[in-house]
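Look over both lines:
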Amino acid sequence: MNTNRRKLLVRTLGTVGLLGTSKVFATAEDVEAAIKAIAGDAEITQGALTLTAPEIAENGNSVPIAVLVDGELTPESYVESVAVFADGNPNPEVITFNFTPDSGEAFAATRLRLAKTQNVVAVAKMNDGTVLTDTKNVKVTIGGCGG
């Protein structure tokens, strides 16, 4: 069998899922595991964290989102980080925003690339170990991650 470098590369990358027609997407279980890694044994609550995202995104290449944790940041009580996950993308971890008491407020906005209709989940970790969450389902009409 005569194998050149190009054929070997295509076979290797195809085997690990980097090439080929099948796409590998994260699952809700992948997101749950990532959240568990952040939260540990802490109870996850809803309420003070607000995730803003469109209900329908006409183009998955640029989906605007914003996260806001209510309340003033003080040295005694502040948000350490807010992580954003997407359960239908190839990689569920999208972005993490880090805050300090000097941040003034726990607010951040960005644009995401979403491959298909999916849940976007925000998880805020407070300095006292409290974990907050909010979830939005975003319907994507044109995929952004090659979809």
Notes: The radius of gyration is 19 Å. Strands lie at 44-45, 49-52, 56-57, 63-69, 79-86, 93-98, 106-112, 118-126, 131-140.
